[in-house]
Write a structure and sequence with these properties.
The complex is a heterodimer of chains A (262) and B (172).
Chain A lengths: L22 H5 L3 H13 L1 H9 L4 H24 L5 H31 L6 H21 L1 H9 L4 H27 L6 H22 L22 H12 L3 E3 L2 E3 L4
Antiparallel strand pairs in A: 1-2
Helix pairs in contact in A: 2-4, 3-6, 4-5, 4-6, 5-6, 5-9, 6-8, 7-8, 8-9
Chain B lengths: L1 H7 L1 H18 L4 H32 L6 H32 L3 H27 L5 H31 L5
Helix pairs in contact in B: 2-3, 2-4, 2-5, 3-6, 4-5
The chains are: A mainly alpha (262), B mainly alpha (172).
Chain lengths: 262, 172
């Protein structure tokens, strides 16, 4: 088994510059390369952004980050699935990576189109790498937050608290992810606010709708059956509307709103 | 001849293709007839707005003493429409996903129109930047902002006029 040697490839944070600047390319195909890319993504996001900008080992990097993204979101999904147990562990472990990859697939063309439209440097491979790296960094944060989910399981947190904890965890991961992307977009200052605003809004809407489509991720333990996907009904925006109506005392009954007031 | 040339330019395809695509995708939820008619309706609304409001921009630009020939303003306008078209095409996967997965087909149209507006917003940004060398920032804002507001009002009215009959099955 290959291990990551701290002596052969010093961390940039140690203040020791790598002796061979092309080392990253050589390492790209090996397990050491994978470890290096993950380590860089964790500790030196600025270097990752610079490497993506200079297209250093871009394909290997992107491949590694996709693997990280899938693995971390799968583990987080599986942890949510443990609340109900059984086949829901597998379902949630499959669904969360699908949602993330779907959001990525939709966001990449719009980021490229915006860069082209606003006369910013545009390169589809670089844009995909930036998005994958930002989502992978967020996924690493999600993985780091896993102990919170497990602790909630351990203390017997109820369904609603676990939902809140999940939303909070995903929110923190989303902020970290966006910060990475913002800095990557900011390499060219021109039009960055408009690009960030539109990409963020698109990813937010598409991510929310994809999550809604593949719900549920967290299922109550007493639920007799679990499904991989519900039939096409409602949407994320409608669910928010329902929640707001419920909060005002109007509840859904057979698909129609019922008011408490006469 | 020049008309044939302009049609052969790739940027014409971007400018025309974006609205056509963004209209057609939500139209899939309304049937084949709407799919085929919504795209041209959006494009017609956009072009009609450009034809009505474009000369007004040149006149305002010139009357207020800003620098810029008719050709420069025309080129800035064409660049803005091309940029908007590119963004419209970039939005296509998102609109397709959202339009295909929302339960109410009206929502699909809302997403399509939101993406259409997003593209036009980028186009407006591009127009702003292209025209700015001809005037101070305040001057450009004083001319462009009222013009953009008026264009948005005219554009929304035209989109309504072109799109609603398609959805209700009437002739435009």
């Amino acid at each position: 088994m290959s291990t990551f040697s701290l002596e052969s490839t010093p961390f940039p944070a140690d203040g020791i510059a790598p002796t061979d600047p092309t080392g990253a390319t050589e390492l790209a195909n090996g397990a050491d390369g994978v470890a290096l890319h993950i380590d860089q993504l964790l500790k030196s996001p600025a270097e990752v952004r610079a490497a993506i900008e200079s297209r250093t080992a871009l394909a290997a990097r992107t491949r590694t980050y996709v693997q990280v993204l899938v693995a971390c979101t799968a583990v987080f999904g599986a942890s949510l699935g443990f609340y109900r147990g059984g086949v829901q562990i597998l379902f949630a472990a499959l669904k969360l990576p699908i949602v993330t990859l779907l959001t990525l697939a939709v966001a990449a063309p719009i980021l490229y189109a915006l860069n082209r439209a606003l006369e910013r440097p545009a390169d589809m491979a670089r844009e995909v790498a930036q998005l994958v790296a930002s989502l992978a960094r967020g996924a690493l944060v999600l993985s780091a937050e896993l102990p919170l989910i497990w602790a909630a399981h351990a203390v017997g947190a109820d369904y609603h608290r676990l939902i809140l904890l999940t939303v909070l965890s995903c929110g923190v991961a989303g902020i970290v992810s966006f910060w990475f992307l913002w800095n990557a977009i900011s390499v060219t200052k021109m039009g960055r606010a408009l690009v960030a605003l539109i990409v963020l809004a698109t990813m937010g809407v598409v991510g929310a709708q994809a999550s809604w489509l593949f719900r549920p991720f967290l299922v109550r333990p007493r639920a007799a059956n679990v499904v991989f996907m519900h039939a096409l009904e409602g949407s994320f925006s409608e669910a928010i509307g329902d929640s707001l109506s419920s909060a005002q005392g109007h509840y859904r009954d057979d698909g129609r709103y019922q008011s408490r007031s006469p | 001849m020049s008309q044939a040339l302009s049609l052969s330019r790739p940027r014409t395809y971007w400018a025309f293709g974006g609205p056509l695509l963004l209209g057609a995708l939500p139209g899939l939820r309304f049937g084949w007839s709407a799919t085929l008619r919504l795209g041209p309706s959006l494009l017609a609304a956009l072009l009609a707005t450009a034809v009505i409001m474009g000369p007004a921009l040149y006149l305002l630009w010139g009357l207020t003493g800003a620098k810029g020939s008719l050709d420069q303003v025309r080129r800035a306008f064409a660049d803005a429409l091309t940029a908007a078209g590119r963004v419209h095409v970039g939005f296509a996967p998102a609109v397709l996903l959202l339009a295909a997965t929302v339960s109410h087909r009206d929502h699909a149209l809302v997403f399509g129109l939101a993406a259409f507006l997003g593209g036009l917003l980028v186009g407006a940004g591009r127009l702003w930047r292209a025209l700015q060398p001809g005037a101070s920032r305040t001057h450009a804002a004083a001319v462009l902002l009222p013009w953009l507001i008026a264009s948005a009002i005219v554009g929304c009215r035209l989109v309504g006029q072109f799109v609603v009959p398609v959805l209700s099955g009437k002739a435009v």
